[in-house]
Design a protein that fits this description.
The protein is mainly β. The chain contains no helices and 14 strands.
Length: about 190
């Protein structure tokens, strides 16, 4: 019997296409046909890759494998890796029995964009002001959640007794949702 399998693959998003290889355990004197297609994993068809509707895939006679390319759509958005599925069914070889040991593969589109950087400008207030607001800004929007932990640190102004200048900001997370670029924290000033 001929045995078929499809290997998983991982490709950076801007270096596509993604190439899936269907392997046959040995060559046959006739073509091996099967029906293959892509389906959605965490990647979005039409946005991250070009979907392939069910089609006749062939491993030609006298060969032990064949490749199928899936076009990727690159962008410059930092994001988590995304996946798509390439699967095949109904193998047919008119000379020998044929079956799958692995009929689907996961294609991982890995991120190749730099993570945004965070900037938090210094702030200055006059004594008697009730609060000071610090604004954290990402250099670019991301396609995934970014979490940054912030806290206050004593300098020449202190948050410790007996004469605190401000109320300490304990370690707290800024959670930037996908597409979000600005977060603020308000520190209370002690008069």
């Amino acid at each position: 019997d001929l045995l078929l399998s499809i290997a998983d693959v991982s490709v950076p998003e801007n270096s596509g296409p993604m190439v899936f290889t269907v392997t046959q355990s040995e060559a046959s004197i006739v073509d091996t046909h099967m029906t293959c297609q892509t389906s959605v994993g965490t990647a979005t068809a039409g946005t991250d890759y070009t979907a392939l509707a069910a089609f006749d895939f062939i491993i030609p006679a006298n060969l032990t494998s064949a490749d199928q390319s899936v076009s990727l759509t690159g962008e410059s958005l930092f994001e988590s890796p995304e996946t798509l599925i390439f699967s095949c069914t109904s193998p047919l070889n008119t000379d020998r029995a044929v079956s799958f040991t692995d009929s689907s593969a996961i294609g991982t589109i890995s991120n190749d964009d730099a993570a945004p950087t965070l900037s938090v400008p210094n702030q200055s207030v006059t004594e008697g002001t009730a609060t000071v607001t610090f604004t954290g800004t990402l250099s670019a929007a991301a396609g995934t959640t970014i979490t940054v932990t912030h806290r206050s640190v004593d300098g020449t102004a202190v948050s410790t007794t007996p004469n605190p200048d401000f109320v300490a900001d304990p370690p707290t997370d800024w959670v930037f949702a996908a597409g979000e670029t600005v977060k603020t924290v308000v520190i209370s000033i002690v008069d």
